[in-house]
Design a protein that fits this description.
Blueprint (H helix, E strand, L loop, with lengths): L6 H26 L3 H18 L8 E3 L4 H11 L1 H25 L2 H6 L2 H22 L9 H19 L4 H4 L1 H15 L6 H5 L15 H29 L4 H23 L4 E3 L1 H10 L4 H14 L3 H8 L3 H25 L7 H15 L3 E3 L4 E3 H21 L12
Antiparallel strand pairs: 1-2, 3-4
């Protein structure tokens, strides 16, 4: 990991990792309605901070996190993007505090508070909660049905699926980019794409900076997403460690990694970018290429920073038609929900046990039903409410089990 490949290999390997997460990471700012260049810039800076604080021992790239998307859309609609930024800053502080706790007590408490039954259900809710957004952008919702929009979205989805299942090599690594490109061609043929913004954009442009606005509401809504990404980070690092045959929790240690992630999120929130997280797409590239050099991820971060100052490139991202974004979202949001189900299956969660059945059932329904609790300064709903309820319910079960009040055996055993 501490070796640096020659430039002839470093450049294509870095581009491969950048492309692997690029389609998903730019989707977040596009959906939030902010400058994608801002997110690319601070994802690159955040990755370099993370790598440096981890002593260049963790091969990872920090991209936009989908866990924050649903609560962010809620906050932006009511209070504006500046309010969401205050929540992002608080998220970074949360990770810094979590690092201090982990330095003192280790990571065991995370699994106690968030067992697999809770985490798998919450991850599934992230995708399910975003499903209406995908349907609306795709022209498939009952509110705005449009045959042309739906056709573009479904064509984009179809091409992306083909890329994931038929293509090999680099093309299989970038199915989202191939889907977006193909969808834009279809959109242009149907008159749903305009290149005017690209033509008018300068070659060199400074990414937009946004100012945070203090909002207690935003902080309360965003923090549950931080809890989710904390466990997501632990899971990703465990898989990465297995691939590179190294215990990353011992060296450089979870505390260092959380400090790097926390500083990155605070910096992003101050200057107008979104919180970030490690990407499973990059972990997949690691497994395929078997090149574990962290210099490759540093190269990807530098390229992202350079691209963020290309006005025409970021203008092209802004020109991506909504139906194309919708088609990609139909798959990506579904993949998130399926990932939650996969966590439940791989963790061998026994749903014949009342405790597990109740946790999974309550979290899924509360998170995807539109249920809401008015707390005065904030309205908890969606993934945020599901996370709070899931953690609270699990803690109640823990207390009950201490006093022998929970039956762990299968209800089928009579």
């Amino acid at each position: 990991m501490d070796t640096v490949p020659p430039l002839s290999l470093l450049l294509p390997l870095s581009l491969q990792h950048l492309f692997a997460m690029f389609g998903a990471t730019i989707l977040v700012p596009v959906l939030l309605g902010i400058d994608p260049a801002t997110v690319l810039l601070f994802n690159g800076i955040g990755t370099l901070i993370f790598l440096t604080l981890c002593q260049w021992k963790v091969p990872a790239y920090l991209g936009s996190s989908f866990a924050y998307l649903s609560p962010s859309l809620m906050i932006i609609g009511a209070y504006g993007y500046g309010a969401a930024l205050s929540g992002y800053i608080a998220s970074g502080i949360f990770f810094l505090l979590a690092a201090l706790i982990i330095f003192r007590f280790g990571t065991g408490w995370v699994r106690v508070i968030l067992p697999d039954a809770v985490m798998g259900s919450i991850v599934a809710v992230i995708g399910l909660d975003l499903a209406p957004t995908a349907a609306r952008l795709s022209g498939l919702s009952v509110d705005n049905p449009d045959i042309h929009v739906a056709g573009i979205a479904l064509f984009t989805l179809f091409v992306t699926i083909l890329s994931m299942t038929i293509f090999r090599g680099i093309f299989r690594v970038i199915p989202i980019l191939i889907g977006i490109f193909s969808g834009c061609i279809m959109a242009a043929a149907l008159g749903h794409f305009s290149s005017n913004l690209i033509m008018q954009a300068p070659w060199l442009a400074v990414p937009t900076l946004y100012a945070p606005v203090w909002s207690l509401h935003a902080i309360i809504i965003i923090i549950p997403a931080s809890v989710v990404t904390l466990v997501e980070l632990i899971g990703h690092l465990q898989v990465t460690g297995n691939i590179i045959h190294k215990d990353l929790f011992k060296d450089p240690g979870m505390g260092r990694m959380l400090i790097g992630k926390g500083i990155s999120c605070v910096l992003s929130g101050i200057f107008g970018s979104t919180p970030n997280t490690t990407y499973s797409e990059n972990i997949g590239v690691l497994a395929i290429t078997r090149v574990y050099s962290t210099a490759v991820f540093g190269g990807a971060a530098v390229i992202a920073i350079l691209i963020s100052f290309c006005g025409k490139f970021t203008a092209a991202i802004r020109c991506i038609p909504e139906p194309v974004i919708g088609g990609i979202s139909l798959l990506l949001f579904g993949v998130i929900a399926a990932s939650g189900v996969r966590m439940l299956i791989e963790s061998k969660i026994d749903l014949s046990q009342s405790k597990n059945l109740i946790l999974v059932s309550v979290i899924l329904i509360i998170g995807s039903s539109g249920a809401m609790i008015d707390l005065g300064p904030a309205d908890l709903k969606g993934m945020s409410l599901a996370t709070v309820v899931g953690i609270g319910l699990n803690l109640i079960f823990i207390v009950f089990s201490r006093f022998g009040g929970i039956r762990e055996e299968s209800e089928d055993a009579q």
